[in-house]
Amino acid sequence: MRDDFQLEAFLPAVGNILILSAERDGLDARYRLYGSKVADHAGRDWTGFLVSEMNPITGSGLALIYRAVYLAVHQTGRPIYCGHRSPEWMSAKSRLRLILPVSEDGVACSQFVVGKIPVDIKMQTQFDKIAERRVVRGADPVD
Length: 143
Fold this sequence. Notes:
Mean pLDDT: 83
Helix content: 25-40%
Structural class: alpha+beta
Number of strands: 5
Number of domains: 1
CATH topology: Beta-Lactamase
Order of helices and strands: EEHHHEEEH
Low-confidence stretches: none
Radius of gyration: 15 Å
Shape: globular
Distance between the termini: 42 Å
CATH class: Alpha Beta
Strand content: 25-35%
Number of helices: 4
Protein backbone atom coordinates (compact mmCIF):
# COMPACT_ATOMS: atom_id res chain seq x y z
CA MET A 1 0.00 0.00 0.00
CA ARG A 2 1.18 3.51 -0.77
CA ASP A 3 0.52 4.66 2.82
CA ASP A 4 2.86 1.93 4.11
CA PHE A 5 5.77 3.13 1.96
CA GLN A 6 7.94 5.76 3.64
CA LEU A 7 10.69 7.14 1.41
CA GLU A 8 12.52 8.46 4.48
CA ALA A 9 13.32 4.86 5.46
CA PHE A 10 15.18 4.48 2.17
CA LEU A 11 17.23 7.69 2.33
CA PRO A 12 20.59 5.86 2.47
CA ALA A 13 19.70 4.18 -0.85
CA VAL A 14 17.61 6.93 -2.49
CA GLY A 15 20.23 7.50 -5.21
CA ASN A 16 19.49 3.98 -6.47
CA ILE A 17 15.70 4.30 -6.31
CA LEU A 18 13.22 5.09 -9.06
CA ILE A 19 9.56 5.88 -8.44
CA LEU A 20 7.20 5.71 -11.39
CA SER A 21 3.48 6.27 -11.80
CA ALA A 22 1.68 3.69 -13.91
CA GLU A 23 -0.01 5.13 -17.00
CA ARG A 24 -2.28 3.69 -19.69
CA ASP A 25 -3.17 0.63 -17.56
CA GLY A 26 0.49 -0.25 -17.10
CA LEU A 27 1.48 0.06 -20.77
CA ASP A 28 3.70 3.01 -19.87
CA ALA A 29 5.02 4.74 -16.76
CA ARG A 30 6.29 8.20 -15.85
CA TYR A 31 9.42 8.70 -13.77
CA ARG A 32 8.51 10.68 -10.64
CA LEU A 33 11.91 10.17 -9.03
CA TYR A 34 15.02 9.11 -10.90
CA GLY A 35 17.76 8.47 -8.34
CA SER A 36 20.95 10.49 -8.67
CA LYS A 37 23.24 7.44 -8.77
CA VAL A 38 21.11 5.83 -11.47
CA ALA A 39 21.15 9.13 -13.40
CA ASP A 40 24.96 9.31 -13.14
CA HIS A 41 25.29 5.89 -14.76
CA ALA A 42 22.55 6.58 -17.31
CA GLY A 43 24.03 9.93 -18.31
CA ARG A 44 20.72 11.71 -17.73
CA ASP A 45 18.01 12.36 -15.16
CA TRP A 46 14.76 11.02 -16.63
CA THR A 47 12.49 12.53 -13.94
CA GLY A 48 9.24 13.65 -15.58
CA PHE A 49 9.71 11.55 -18.71
CA LEU A 50 7.62 8.59 -19.83
CA VAL A 51 9.49 5.31 -20.22
CA SER A 52 8.27 5.24 -23.85
CA GLU A 53 10.15 8.49 -24.51
CA MET A 54 13.52 6.83 -23.85
CA ASN A 55 13.80 4.78 -27.06
CA PRO A 56 13.59 7.68 -29.52
CA ILE A 57 16.06 9.72 -27.47
CA THR A 58 18.69 7.03 -26.80
CA GLY A 59 18.24 4.86 -29.89
CA SER A 60 18.26 1.86 -27.53
CA GLY A 61 15.52 -0.75 -27.21
CA LEU A 62 15.94 -1.03 -23.43
CA ALA A 63 12.79 0.96 -22.74
CA LEU A 64 10.81 -1.83 -24.43
CA ILE A 65 12.20 -4.28 -21.87
CA TYR A 66 11.44 -1.85 -19.03
CA ARG A 67 7.86 -1.40 -20.24
CA ALA A 68 7.32 -5.15 -20.54
CA VAL A 69 8.52 -5.74 -16.98
CA TYR A 70 6.48 -2.84 -15.56
CA LEU A 71 3.41 -4.16 -17.39
CA ALA A 72 3.97 -7.62 -15.85
CA VAL A 73 4.26 -6.10 -12.36
CA HIS A 74 1.16 -3.97 -13.00
CA GLN A 75 -0.93 -6.91 -14.20
CA THR A 76 0.15 -9.42 -11.55
CA GLY A 77 0.63 -7.10 -8.58
CA ARG A 78 3.81 -9.04 -7.77
CA PRO A 79 7.42 -7.86 -7.50
CA ILE A 80 9.95 -8.81 -10.16
CA TYR A 81 13.73 -9.08 -9.76
CA CYS A 82 15.61 -8.95 -13.05
CA GLY A 83 18.78 -7.87 -14.77
CA HIS A 84 19.80 -6.64 -18.18
CA ARG A 85 22.87 -5.72 -20.20
CA SER A 86 23.52 -2.04 -20.69
CA PRO A 87 24.28 -0.38 -24.02
CA GLU A 88 28.01 -0.03 -24.75
CA TRP A 89 27.98 3.71 -24.11
CA MET A 90 26.87 3.31 -20.48
CA SER A 91 29.32 3.05 -17.59
CA ALA A 92 27.75 -0.11 -16.13
CA LYS A 93 27.94 -3.28 -18.21
CA SER A 94 24.73 -4.54 -16.64
CA ARG A 95 22.12 -3.58 -14.06
CA LEU A 96 19.98 -5.41 -11.52
CA ARG A 97 16.48 -4.18 -10.64
CA LEU A 98 13.86 -5.01 -8.05
CA ILE A 99 10.46 -3.65 -9.09
CA LEU A 100 7.79 -3.39 -6.39
CA PRO A 101 4.12 -2.68 -7.15
CA VAL A 102 2.49 0.07 -5.10
CA SER A 103 -1.27 0.43 -4.68
CA GLU A 104 -3.29 3.34 -3.33
CA ASP A 105 -6.55 1.38 -3.01
CA GLY A 106 -5.24 -2.09 -2.14
CA VAL A 107 -6.35 -3.48 -5.51
CA ALA A 108 -4.79 -1.76 -8.53
CA CYS A 109 -1.09 -1.06 -9.03
CA SER A 110 -0.70 2.71 -9.43
CA GLN A 111 3.05 3.12 -8.93
CA PHE A 112 6.32 1.24 -9.05
CA VAL A 113 9.23 1.55 -6.65
CA VAL A 114 12.41 0.29 -8.25
CA GLY A 115 15.77 -0.41 -6.69
CA LYS A 116 18.37 -0.34 -9.47
CA ILE A 117 22.09 -1.00 -9.09
CA PRO A 118 24.91 -1.09 -11.63
CA VAL A 119 27.01 -4.23 -11.92
CA ASP A 120 30.52 -4.48 -13.34
CA ILE A 121 31.17 -0.77 -13.73
CA LYS A 122 33.79 0.14 -16.32
CA MET A 123 36.01 3.17 -16.16
CA GLN A 124 35.00 5.82 -18.65
CA THR A 125 37.39 8.13 -20.42
CA GLN A 126 36.42 11.72 -21.10
CA PHE A 127 35.65 10.64 -24.70
CA ASP A 128 33.33 7.88 -23.42
CA LYS A 129 31.46 10.42 -21.30
CA ILE A 130 31.07 12.79 -24.25
CA ALA A 131 29.77 9.95 -26.43
CA GLU A 132 27.33 8.92 -23.71
CA ARG A 133 25.99 12.46 -23.36
CA ARG A 134 25.59 12.78 -27.13
CA VAL A 135 23.41 9.68 -27.13
CA VAL A 136 21.16 10.60 -24.21
CA ARG A 137 21.02 14.35 -24.74
CA GLY A 138 21.27 14.52 -28.52
CA ALA A 139 23.91 17.24 -28.58
CA ASP A 140 27.51 18.01 -27.71
CA PRO A 141 27.78 18.47 -23.95
CA VAL A 142 29.37 21.49 -22.42
CA ASP A 143 31.38 20.64 -19.30
